[in-house]
Amino acid sequence: EQNALFDEQYESDLKNHPETATAFGDYRYNDQLNDYSLNGSSDQHNRDQDFLKRLKAISTQGFHDQDVMSHEVLARVLEQRIANFDFKEFEMPVNQMDGPQVHLADLPLSMPFDTMKQYEDYIARLHQIPRVFTQTEEVLKAGKSDGLMPVRFLLEKVPGQCLGVIAADPFLLPTKKYPAGISKEDQERLSKQIAETVVGEVLPAYIAFANFISTEYAPSGRTVLAVTSLPGGEQRYLN
After folding, report:
1. Local structure of 53: helix, strand or coil
2. Does 121 have pLDDT greater than 80?
3. 3-class SS of residue 151
4. Interatomic CA distance for residues 14 and 25, integer angstroms
5. So what's the pLDDT on residue 239?
6. Angle 135-93-111 from CA coordinates, rounded to 5°
């Protein structure tokens, strides 16, 4: 029963975090990007609570040491996720080192491009980039309303990151070299689709996000470095 729960929880994480699945070498969800919305975080929280409840209902009496340890590790992981949700850490998903502006630019390097299907998956993900930025803005606005803001002078670096991605335009990299199994005609079609999506959807989304950060979000960034300056700061630090 415990092993079945482990498998179910692992599969749930992969399905609901397709970018993580890709990083793990599981390409079933390569045509999807994560749900970055507030509802997405809430849904994940509900799943974590359900898995923890079900895990704790399993008695470890008579288990081998390894199975007991596995039980305790998963419980700790889920408990930590639940605690982080209560602190609303997910409302601060952007800083100078992390955020969609950074890791989306790595898509051309983080996905396989060996088959036609994998190129089509990539195009499907490109179409979803504007949605990711829109959802991220929704989350950042909620964080701003809750007083959960990163440090201002670090946030002010984010628009420059966006402009740097636009200048480098890494999203066209998969069109530079195709595998031998893809015909010349299909190469031209895929290159055209990728270029049109990047120019018409991806880069404008980066520009809009850079403008949002610079005009609406970064100016409200906190000026005190210590995490204890955030709501519930002392307990947040200890956690």
Report:
1. helix
2. yes
3. strand
4. 11
5. 67
6. 75
C-beta of residue 155 within 8 angstroms of C-beta of residue 219: no
pLDDT recorded at residue 46: 98
Residue with tokens 């204890």: 228
Q: pLDDT confidence of 148, banded at 50, 70, 90? A: very high
What pLDDT, on a 0 to 100 scale, did the predictor assign at position 199? 98
Could you tell me the sign of the dihedral formed by the alpha carbons of 14, 16, 20, 21, in that order? Answer: positive
Q: What is the mean pLDDT of the chain?
A: 96
Task: Report yes or no: 201 and 127 within 8 Å, Cβ to Cβ.
Answer: yes
CA distances from 159 to 85, 90, 144, 145, 229 (A): 27, 20, 18, 21, 25
Residue the block writes with tokens 């470890």? 60
Q: What is the pLDDT of residue 225?
A: 84
Report the DSSP beta bridge partners of residue 222: 151
